Amino acid sequence: xxxxxxxxxxxxxxxxxxxxxxxxxxxxRWVGWLERQPFQVVRLGRDxxxxxxxxxxxxxxxxxxxxxxxxxxxxxxPDAVWRPDTGEESRSARWWTSPWLQLExxxxxxLSLPVLVAPEDDVAEGVFQPETWNGQVRGTRLSTPGTxxxxxxxxxxxxxxxxx
Length: 164
Known about the structure:
The protein has a single domain, classed as 3-Layer(aba) Sandwich (Rossmann fold), CATH 3.40.50. About 35% of the residues lie in helices and about 20% in strands. The protein is built from 5 helices and 9 strands, in the order H-E-H-E-H-E-E-E-E-E-H-E-E-H. The strands form 3 sheets. It has a 5-stranded parallel beta sheet, sandwiched between helices. This is TIR domain-containing protein.
């Protein structure tokens, strides 16, 4: 089956809506890399969720073949404590990204979509922890779009062929 027989391979790109100029440049590099694969990049802007963000997001994710989540730094919590006053108390990650990315990752996993996550340095919560990168969820460095993503690209194309 050729690319023209199945239509475009669509990939959802999730990232925080508010970015620094440097983060915006990195986002644009990722979009460029994805488009050269060639994947059609689908994004959902800050105001694109409508009155029912869960329905909007789930409907959109059923129309794509893979998902990329860019874990840009959003919350700086240098003195935060995880599980205070318990036997598991520990220092939390210093940097956190948008919690929406965790929701998007969970929905994508539930839909059996290939997931690629790319955290900014020091972002390591949830799906952005390298220990969680196996099977369906793959990870790479945010600073180098496309590096080490061959298996994920293959999985996205395979998903498209299966869906067609």
